[in-house]
Specification:
By secondary structure, the protein is α/β, with parallel strands linked by helices. The chain is built from 9 helices and 12 strands. The protein has helices spanning about 20-25, 55-60, 115-125, 125-130, 145-155, 185-190, 215-220, 230-240, 265-270; strands at about 10-20, 40-50, 65-70, 95, 100-105, 135-140, 160-165, 175-180, 195-200, 220-225, 255-260, 280. Strands 1, 2, 3, 4, 5, 11 and 12 form a 7-stranded mixed beta sheet that branches. Strands 7-6-8-9-10 form a 5-stranded parallel beta sheet. It is globular, with a radius of gyration of 20 Å.
Length: about 290
């Protein structure tokens, strides 16, 4: 059982949690992490207890359905990641800073609610799209993240964004903006951008890739990193999706099986497949 502290002051009962590529990277040693860590940072659950009763009176109540921004677990806020730098969500309970909590619809106590962090990450490019000159925009990648990023862009009204999966189909100077999810093709993206175009980096690869700087300089390309969008907006997208509203996410192409936590070996084997859909754990029954 986690011990509540003034920093991590809300005890949350975890109902569902998703396996991320970060979890896989930590488990196989390609991403550095704190020793003896509990993995997991994508989840939904219910508030169980407070370190300080005053926190409850501010806004939060026992039994509320919540998720969290997983990067806000340190003293400086956006600097410490649960499941990497401190214990995460592949457990029955997690201690969460109340400032990291995100309120969720009661209908989202399900795998859909555990999808908050990926949706917030897929939202990140959208705050830059409104400033793109021209409307030839594509998400590139043959993977689940590319599909989610496309769907989220459409949810946010950027219907002009399209998906391209084949690198051979990117023509020279074709796009005003490319959102990448496969960094190994970074020079091909530069070639496919028009002069003055924007490359938005969505992937989070730890593997270096070679970059021909001359092409960037000559075409005056802007390279923009995209970390997270607004978690509360992501929560609204998920709530609308759970209600079956038009123009929201289609999870059939994104979601895979739900495993019990005791089945973690099978779950991780499935999650590591290149074309795997999102894999979830059912941790505590509703």
């Amino acid at each position: 059982m986690p011990i509540l502290t003034p920093l991590r002051d809300v005890l949350v009962k975890v109902h569902y949690a998703g396996i991320c590529r970060t979890d896989i990277g930590i488990s196989n040693g390609t991403i550095s992490h704190k020793d003896s860590i509990i993995l997991g940072h994508e989840f939904c659950g219910t508030i169980d207890e407070f370190y300080n009763s005053e926190t409850e009176f501010e806004y939060w109540r026992k039994g509320m359905v919540v998720s969290c921004n997983p990067m806000m677990f340190g003293e400086e806020g956006f600097d410490t990641m649960c499941g990497k730098d401190c214990d995460g969500t592949f457990a029955e309970y997690i201690a969460v800073p109340h400032g990291a909590l995100i309120n969720m619809s009661a209908h989202l106590l399900s795998p859909l609610g555990a999808y908050l962090e990926p949706v917030a990450a897929a939202l990140a490019p959208n705050r830059f799209l409104r400033n793109i000159c021209g409307k030839d925009i594509c998400v590139f990648g043959d993977n689940r993240i590319a599909e989610l990023t496309l769907q989220v862009a459409h949810c946010m009204g950027h219907k002009e964004v399209r998906l391209e999966k084949d690198i051979s189909r990117l023509n020279p100077s074709e796009y005003d903006c490319i959102i990448e999810t496969e960094p190994q093709y970074i020079n091909e993206y530069i070639d496919a951008l028009r002069p003055g175009g924007t490359l938005i980096l969505k992937s989070r690869s730890f593997t270096p890739c070679e970059l021909v700087s001359n092409n960037i300089a000559m075409k005056e390309i802007t390279i923009q990193g995209a970390r997270y969008g607004d978690f509360n907006v992501a929560s609204h997208i998920l709530a609308a999706t759970s209600s079956g509203l038009n123009g929201t996410l289609c999870t059939d192409s994104l979601f895979g099986p739900v495993y019990e936590l005791s089945e973690y070996k099978s779950a991780f084997q499935e999650a590591q497949k290149k074309k795997s859909k999102k894999i979830f754990f059912r941790i505590c029954a509703e």
